Amino acid sequence: MAFVNLKNKEIQVKIVYYGPGRGGKTTNLEYIYKKFRKRINTEMVTVKTHGDRTLFFDFLPFDIGVINGYDVKIQLYTVPGQVKYNATRRLVLRGVDGIVFVADAMAVRREKNILSLRNLQENLANYKKSIFKIPCVIQYNKVDLLEQGIPLLPVETLEKDLNNQLKRPSFKASALTGTNVVMTLKKIISMTVASIKRDLK
Amino acid sequence: MSYTLGQKQLDSIEDILNQDLIDNGVRCVFLIDMAGNIISNLDNGEKQHDIYSLAALAAGNFGAVSAMAKIIGENEFSLLFHKGKKENIHFNKITTEFLLITIFGNDISLGFLRLKVADSVEQLKTILEPLLSL
Amino acid sequence: MVDKNKDDKLDSEIAKRLDDLFGEGDASSAETGAIRADDATADENKSQNQPEQAAHDEIFELEDVAANKSDEGHVAPDYPLAELKNMVLSIDWEITDEVLTGFLTQIDSLKSTYKNEKVILMFLQLLGSLGEYVKTNRGNAHPQTFKILNSVFTRLEDVVLSQDMSALEKKKILRAEMNKYKQLRKQVSQKKASAVSKRRAETLQKKKPISAC
Asked: What's the predicted TM-score (pTM) here?
C-alpha cells in the first residue's frame, strides 16, 4: 500500500524479497547495501538468529530521488524463508507494492521453490492481493555455483516451474557476486513505481 | 493500491500531535501505517532517531504482538508499551490500518500519556477513517 | 495514445534515475542479462484457484500458566498503606474514574485511621487534593502532577514505615512536599492565566476590523 504525501511531495514504496530459506534474499540486500551505501546513505536493519538466519526481516530504505515531481522512497524488506516463520512472512507482506521472488537455482531446492511460491500466493490472498496482479520479478539465484560443479536446475525448468503462468521478468543471478542483483532491483522498482502511478490515476 | 493525504490533512495531523503530545513533554511521536510507511513524525528537537527503521520495526512488532494475541484467544491487547531506563515507547492502534507511536522519558507518567494518546486518537480517527473506504 | 507517451516518459525517467543511482550495475550483468525482459500478466482465467489454507502452519500448544492471585504488593498484608499503594501504582499505568474514586475513598478511610497524627493527616490531605485535581481535569491536568503525587506518596511511606524518625524530621519531609505542591499550583495557575490571555488575544484579533490596504 504505497503512501503518497502531497505535503512533502513524497511516495513511499514497499518491495519485499520473498523465497525459500537460504535462497539469497538477505544476500541480495547485503550486496546492494555494501555496494551503494555511500550513494544511498542509509543503514540496513537486520533481525536475525544466532545462526545468521533471518528471524523477522531485513530492511533497507533509500531515496531514489525525484520522479515526476515526487520524491520516491523505496523500502526493501526480506522475509524469513524457513517454513516455520510463515506468520512472520505474512506480517512483513502487509502493504507490499512489489515483490522479488528469489528462487534457489540448486537442483536439490526445486520443490522448495515451488512450495515457497505457492506460500507467497496464499499469503498475498490473505490481504486480498493476487500474485497475478502485483508487480513481480523472479530471480534465479546462485548461478555462481555452476563453476563449483554443483548441479543447478536449467533455466527452462525454473521458468516452467515458477514462471509459466506468471510470465514475469526473470533474471539469472548471483547475489554473492552481485550478478544481476542491481538489474533485478532496477526492474522491480520501475515496475512498482509505474504501477503505483497508474493506480493513482 | 495506494492512498494519499493532502497538505490540509497532514497539517491537521501535525497540529493534533503537537498540541496533545509534543507540547506535553513527549519526545517523539510518529504516525505510521501497518506497512511501515511514515505518515507524520514530530519530535521536540532534542534527539533525532532513525525513524525509518523505527517505523518498520514498530509495524512489525505491533503485527507480531497482534498475531500472538489472536493465538492466545485475545482479540487484541489493550496496552503495548516498552519501558526503558530513560526512554519508553508506547503503541496505539488507530482503526485497523494505522499506528501511533510515542517515545517519552520518565518525566511523563504512562497513565497520563495514555490519556493524551486516547485524546489524539479520537481526533486523528476523523481524518484517517475516510481513507479506509478507498 | 497520449497516455502511452506519458507512460514511456515515466519509464525513461525512472530508468535514468536508477541508472544515476546504481550506475550500469555490475559488469557481469552484460553477460547474462534477463531471461524474460517483459512483463505479460497472465490471463486471469488461467489463474490457479487459491488454495484453502496454507498447509505449513505449525500447531502451537501453550502451557496453562496458573493465574497468580496473590497480592501484587511487596509489603505485608497488614501494612496500612497497601491498598493506597496499589491505587497509586494503578494511576501510574492507567487513569480511570474507577481508580481515582478508589484512590479518594482510600484517602478518606486512612484519614480516620490517622486522625490523631497531624503530619500523616497533612500528607493525606495533599494526596487527596492532587487526586481531586486529576479527577476533575484528567487529560488537562498538568503533566508534573503525577510526579508529585508519586513523590508525596513515597515520602508518606517513609514516614509511616520509619521506626525512629523524629517529629522534626517528619515535619521537614512534609514541608518539602508541600513546597513541591505549592510550586505545582503556581504552575497550574500560570498555565491557566496564559491560556485565558491567549484566548482573549485571539478573540480581539477576530473582532479587529479589516484595515483598508
From this structure: 0.79
